[in-house]
């Protein structure tokens, strides 16, 4: 295969194995050939987070929310990723605010009953858990990580279930 979709898939694989420079270039190429997409912007923002460029991630996520104001699954992802970026900058209140917005968005605005909705809720709970953990509020972190674990057990996503267990371990070790 070739073309913009193929480029995006290769970019995602490169990001998964830690080849962030290559992934970033491939996403940029995909954006040039197919136009900017919300999904590619989210993935580029995640690369910024992985490479500790938190302010760049925040700027991109805010720009993406403003540009694509529609209500969809990706909006909850952006809110959760904003929470993570702010948490890594030590801005606990903003981190908690965006994590709560993500969960509220999934629960009340973009409510679905399929696996996508469960996944979004789990990611929002994980964001809240991360924010509480970074704020050393271990009991609250554990509560939200347990919700995350139960959700990923429902979806059968074993990799994310493992991450949830790891998060729980970190919160219990405090």
Structure explained in plain terms:
It is globular, with a radius of gyration of 16 Å. Helices cover 82% and strands 0% of the residues. The protein starts with a helix and ends with a helix. Helix 4 (54-67) runs antiparallel to helix 5 (73-88), helix 5 packs parallel to helix 7 and helix 7 (115-134) packs parallel to helix 9. It is built from 9 helices and no strands. It has helices spanning 4-16, 20-34, 38-50, 54-67, 73-88, 92-109, 115-134, 138-155, 158-173. It is mainly alpha-helical and 174 residues long.
Instruction: Describe the largest sheet.
Output: none
Q: Assign an overall shape.
A: globular
Compressed to H and E, one letter per element, the order equals HHHHHHHHH
Termini gap? 47 Å
Helix content: over 70%
The residue ranges in which pLDDT falls below 50 over 5 or more consecutive positions are: none
Please, what is the oligomeric state? single chain
Q: How big a fraction of the residues is strand?
A: under 5%
The chain-level mean pLDDT equals: 84
Nearest-angstrom radius of gyration?
16 Å
The strand count comes to 0
Structural class: mainly alpha
Given the structure, what is the number of helices?
9
């Amino acid at each position: 295969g070739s073309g913009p979709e193929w480029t995006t898939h290769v970019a995602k694989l490169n990001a998964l194995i830690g080849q962030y420079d290559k992934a970033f270039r491939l996403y940029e190429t995909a954006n040039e050939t197919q136009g900017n997409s919300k999904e590619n912007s989210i993935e580029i923002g995640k690369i910024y987070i992985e490479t500790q460029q938190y302010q760049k991630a925040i700027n991109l996520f805010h720009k993406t929310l403003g540009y694509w104001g529609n209500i969809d699954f990706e909006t909850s992802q952006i809110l959760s990723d904003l929470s993570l970026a702010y948490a890594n900058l030590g801005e606990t209140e903003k981190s908690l605010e965006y994590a709560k917005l993500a969960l509220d968005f999934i629960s009340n605005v973009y409510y679905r009953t399929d696996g996508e909705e469960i996944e979004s809720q789990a990611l929002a709970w994980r964001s809240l858990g991360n924010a509480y953990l970074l704020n050393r509020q271990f009991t609250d972190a554990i509560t939200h990580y347990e919700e995350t674990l139960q959700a990923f057990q429902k979806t059968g996503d074993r990799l994310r279930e493992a991450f949830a267990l790891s998060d729980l371990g970190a919160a219990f070790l405090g």
